[in-house]
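Consider today's protein:

***
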Amino acid sequence: MKHYAYYIDSPTEEVHEAECPNMPAANKINLGTHATAVKAVKAAISKGYTNANGCDHCCSGAHKK
């Protein structure tokens, strides 16, 4: 299974794939590589980003809002 690099935008707590055009250049924190966006969001939550949510463009399977 392929893994993708994910980042979280710290002010908005939105999780993005590394290549997402909607990911801001500033305030991004590397979440590492994960098999799915859902796993990346769970990793963000475990790091204290309790409002983490997937980007509706690149992580639609993990987008809740």
